[in-house]
Amino acid sequence: MDTVRAFLRHPSGMIGLVLLLVIVIVAIIAPKLFPVSPWEMVGAPFTPPGEDGLWLGGDTLGRDVAAGVAHGARVSLLIGIASALAAMAIGVVIGAMSGYFGGKVDLVLMRMTELFQTIPAFVLAILLVATFNPSLLTIILTIGAVSWPPLARLTRAEFLRLRHREFVEAALCQGERTWRIVLGHILPNAISPILVVTSLTVATAILLESALSFMGLGDPNLMSWGFMIGAGRTVIRNAWWMSVFPGLAILITVLAINLFGEGLSDVLNPRVLRRRS
Amino acid sequence: MSEAAQIDTPVLAVESLSIALPKGGDRELAVENVSFAIKRNEVVCLVGESGSGKSMIAHAVLSLLPRGVGIVAGAVTVAEENPAQLDGRGLRRLRGGKAAMIFQEPLSSLNPLKRVGKQIEEMILAHQQPVPSAAEVQARVQTLLTQVGLPNPQLLERSFPFELSGGQRQRVMIAMAMANRPALLIADEPTTALDVTTQRQILRLIGDLRRERGMGVLLITHDFGVVADVAHRVVVLRHGKVVEQGPASEVLRHPKAAYTRELIDAVPKARLADIHGTIARPEPLLEVVGLQKTFRVKRGWLQPAREVVAADGVSLTLHECETLAVVGESGSGKSTLGRMIMRLTEPDAGAIRFGGADLRQLRGEALRQARRQLQIVFQDPFASLDPRQKVGDAIARGPMAYGMSRTDAMALAKRLLVRVGLSETTADRYPHEFSGGQRQRICIARALALKPRVLIADEAVSALDVSVQAQVLALLAELRQEMRLAMIFITHDLRIAAEIADRVIVLQKGRIVEEGSTAEVFTAPRQAYTRDLLDAIPGRAFFDQPGFAAGNASEFDDRVQRDALKM
What is one Pfam family matched by this protein (chain B) (predicted)? Predict the structure, then answer.
């Protein structure tokens, strides 16, 4: 496909993709790389990096930081992707209804979206997680519930743009049913920017999850990057490695996703691809 | 230089010019071995269909070719300079100095955020050495605006492009082009985006300015009507090669090349004799009564909304197998009328009676069922097909929505594709693989798949090349007989209306100003507005149209002679 080929020629997009693939592979083979649970104490507390066979050192209780980072990748990616998909599902449905039907439906849905946009996402996320017990599912749903407004607005704008295009009106005149027009004609032509924003939402979702875990509001059974930084922050002056390595992991992952998303955006953008006239 | 020598030197000489396209284009050379010259006070028309390379030549003259496209052989000489050899500075001096250009779409050629006076000033300041004083520049801007026939130059100078009409914008573009008294004016389809009446005014203006200043004009057009009205010499291009060139009267009267003949023949002409008189049938198929529609455009908090009347008591009837043309300038509400009948735009008042019911009262499923018998073909064949849907699916979707099985619908789609002149295998291809004319055929097949009784064609051939236009019109005429279709043909081009319609409705500002059989309206127009529209048809004098009021070939010869004497 042309799109795939164009992406392969996009330098920063490819860097993002390669980094992302490395992180995904680490996440997948983490149990093989570190068969011992990351919660297990394997060395002396405060082991500096490189000693006792712990490449990235040990934490305050002697747990392996490297194992934590590898296992944390699973959690971060899972929550990041799942909650971005949740946000996309909510955002696309609300945006599509708002853009297609217009009028009162649009008015009500957009005021609701604005309500969500006026509340700081992180504060709302804390509130939601604190109300429901923190678990993998509630965290995913919470992050999804605070991340959808930009996607809804984007979808609405795309629908408004396409709603009165002649091919959509032609489909209407052909007697096609509303759901077929929406799913068959408008959505496929609107999907590119939605995918790009969703991919970037993965990055913010990972940051949100880390922040929640840092606050101690993560799933207590899962080793995550945010939790590790939170646990190591009090001793950062004499044991920098406990916070720095998970921090770097977050930095690299978010950077990789952003590079990938921007590459995707460039490739899917018709102005860059140059439509054949 | 002596006066005589100056007259002999052409202002533009194109000598065996070849321009290469980047690899992977549809042909190797965009332009191949093209030669022609323009003398002072001469209008040369470059004529050809889309893709013939006519714009490429114009862009090469000012060294404006897109990246990856370059001159591989031959040379262009503009006012004794070769733009290909000039450096950036020399080019800037040439462009807008000795040679100026105006484009097809005046809105996108003007800076939307700058007042038009400032934009004209810029042209003067960029070229005049020494820089004239502010008062002098101001005075020259005023003069220019007056010269291009714009009303109230003081006010106009302070307007933004969006506040002007299409014709006014093109006049501003011409004023900018004239700012430095160019020896050569290049006009790339300057009137294609404009109404017939505006087109005539703009062409006249260019002609007047040329005579006053003795400049050479390179006019690019696809319309032989325009050629007949303004050209001294014609260069006919096809696939980048010159098919024929010579004096306008010669080429138009006795074309040597078969292709030129085809293009001239393809210009729509009234064939009033062929049209069968409408037999008065008691029951009209479609009856529109007193449609009313006003668009309200909000203009900020404190200003009152601007109201545009698109339909003011429009009533019409349409019988089986009849073609009704709706003509008018842009903004006359003709497209809105078609859209209201299709229920794509909601009228404020009135009734649309079809098949014993008022379409305006129908909702939901009942409306969906009624729509089946009314179909529409839109103007832009590129916008009216879903880029992500295969052509066969696009046609089959309609019958499937009304319960036909997929296999039957696909078989029908393939039959229809063959009927409109495409092959069965095209069903599996995507719209971007087709040309504009082919796409419009697909759109027609899509509309016909539902076996409608009424077909609305909203400027359905306006975006097509003239030869393709003729083919699509012929196809529509055939299908009308075959399927006993009633058609509403919305167009701004009266030539097309005369060619295809039984009856004509003339719309002005949402109101029907004249209605009657095509022969009546075209031979004996009752309203001044209709007469204006008829007078503005390009090439009317040359294409001595049977039945047209006061159009005759001698007018064309008069003009040619007049111009010859003046040169």
Answer: oligo_HPY
